[in-house]
Amino acid sequence: MYIAGYGILIAFILFSFAFAAAALIMSFLVQPKAPGKNKEKTYECGMKPFGDSRIQFDLKYYLYALLFLIFDIEAVFLFPWAVSYNKLGLFALVEALIFIAILVVGLVYAWKKDALKWQ
User: Fold this and answer.
1) From residue 54, how far is each of 2, 49, 57, 59, 113 by CA, in Å?
2) Of 55, 84, 88, 103, which has the fewest Cβ atoms less than 10 A away?
3) In this structure, are residues 96 and 78 in contact, taking their beta carbons and an 8 Å threshold?
4) What is the CATH number of the domain that holds 107?
5) Whether residue 117 has pLDDT greater than 90
6) Are 96 and 81 a contacting pair, CB within 8 Å?
């Protein structure tokens, strides 16, 4: 019945895997191979490396990134709603206001916990 339609999908998946494998193999074959002591050092903007390259970052950086993602995704969800606002009606307006209210509660919570304070 519908098996003929899946042939194209299977061919596309196989081609995708073959193309990715060919790219990886070609990059391995073509890459310059000049191992040495300088190649294994950490690069620090042209300066001579000093200390260990693995340092601990403050947890606040990850918290800022997480808050940015949350509010960035909010904009992604609100954009299609704003584009088709005329077709959606009052029910969609109420749903959007509830969505924004939930995000405002999250923003107030982050503000109260000093998550937005840069230190």
Assistant:
1) 54, 12, 9, 15, 29
2) 55
3) yes
4) 1.20.58
5) no
6) yes
